[in-house]
Input
Amino acid sequence: MPSYTIYEKPGLPPHEAIDSAILIKDHYSIFAFMLPAVWMLVKRLWWILLIYILILIPVSALETMLPIWASMLITLLMSLWISLEAPNLIGWSLRNKGYIEVASLYAEDLEHCEHRYVTARLAEAERGATQTPFARSADASGSKPLPNQSKSGYVALKDKMRDTGTSEPIIGLFPAPDRSRET
Output
């Protein structure tokens, strides 16, 4: 099942945050492997493109000193790394633009991921959370924040969306046995 990472702009009301959320599928990008510079231009990854060009300049200068197979291997490895890290490079660019990562979900497809995200986000908004994303800081009475809150006050969406169906601990991939079914 594919994994998706969800990014939101902080400080927006729930409905605007849902509308402006960006979902990125974590997968290998063949386009980024074949034409990395063009892929970076299409995705508007300007800083990453600049770094890529700055790395290619010394590599191209080394082509005269290295055998042809070595320079081809270096270029191949750079393209392979970029294609494997494509979702993370997009996420890095979004974080630089002010977005924050709010969840990492497994879903059958993009539509299923959107459905799970919107359902959890609206449920959180109905519970009275006024801050986004999924945050509840200490209220005016001075109570302590939730135990799974980070220092910035954000609670990960994936913690809110767990559907284990049991309060028993999970050992490995299997939940604890159901005592009511034993004879």
Q: What stands out?
A: Residues 130-156 have pLDDT under 50 and may be disordered.
